[in-house]
Design a protein that fits this description.
It is a single chain. The chain is mainly α. The protein has a domain at about 30-79. The chain is built from five helices and no strands. The protein has helices at about 20-30, 35-40, 45-50, 60-70, 75-79. The chain is elongated, with a radius of gyration of 16 Å. About 10% of the residues are buried. The model has no long low-confidence stretch (mean pLDDT about 90).
């Protein structure tokens, strides 16, 4: 008898869902202090890694982003 699968691994970005990171960074830059390149660097930051690994939640990630870029988007607009 074989064991039942307990985990599923999949690649979401540009495999199951089309994503457009450049457009996202340009839109964020339009609502925040900083240019798209500065926004791009945030996505390589320790805060982003902490968010991607579940160490911080969406609200903490939003606060970290806004503190660094003085973003005028509310949480709903950021999400």
């Amino acid at each position: 008898m074989s064991k039942a699968n307990t985990h599923i691994i999949f690649d979401l970005g540009n495999v199951l869902i089309d994503i457009h990171p450049e457009a996202t960074m340009e839109a964020l830059a339009a609502s925040c202090e900083g240019n798209p390149e500065e926004i791009r660097r945030f996505f390589l930051s320790p805060a982003h890694l902490s968010y991607m690994t579940g160490e911080i939640d969406s609200a903490a990630y939003y606060r970290a982003f806004c503190e660094q870029h003085r973003c005028t988007l509310d949480f709903a607009g950021f999400s």
